[in-house]
Amino acid sequence: MQSLNFPPPIYNNYIPTPQKANPFLFRNRRDQTHRFPPLLLAAKHDLALNDDEDTGGAVAPLPEGLRREVMPRHVAVIMDGNARWARQRGFLEASAGHEAGGRSLRELVELCCEWGIRILTVFAFSYDNWTRPKVEVVFLIRLFEKMLRSELDNFMRNGIRVSTIGDSSSYSGKYDVVQACRNIAQKVKDGAVQMEDIDESLLEQELETNCAQYPCPDLLIRTSGEHRISNFLLWQLAYTELFFAEALWPDFGKAEFIEALASYQQRQRRYGGRRRS
User: pTM value?
Assistant: First the structure.
């Protein structure tokens, strides 16, 4: 775990660790990263568990209607709607919505731990978000740092590991693919890689999000009723199941999460193949 040097945006993953009852990895993606250490924003030290690793400790019973054998391993969330939530309640600044959104994130982390979801990836701040008012950007960065500091002891106590993936800029799914191609091109130029060696696996290894070590999301949830992925994990979402929630992010809680998981469990994932009869 690293100390927070420069608070960035957040992209987080939680993965259970062997010796704790609620083992998880909290890691950050380039989308929300500045090459700074951990946070509900995470950073670049990859700490995932293998499927055969024991999650250690009992997992809480699932809500009625959910089945453990078809729970997603990796859930990604686009946390959208904080500013609209604040406006609807008469707040002059979006900061009230961001603070409320932080509470929703804490609840989601707890539910993932309780229900055995191994990875949680959260998209909170993209490259395009730098165009927002400076006061809002500064508030977000300070909020990320505040959340990290306040939750650090809790993470350690519950076996949650924090890791950040990314560079010193905000995340862009398009740029992630571009920089991976550049890295491979340079290796070809240097003679370290042959043209015939270039395949999907090699490109994945060059992505800032490094899906070679971490599974691609099984389920993507976007809140606020918007139906788009907004330049988030463009490569990794190829076969991800999508769920669009009408609730604004600060209103997204346990009931809404159960609805998303129930929808996911009713689907038959074909990965490009035909539906089984």
Answer: 0.73
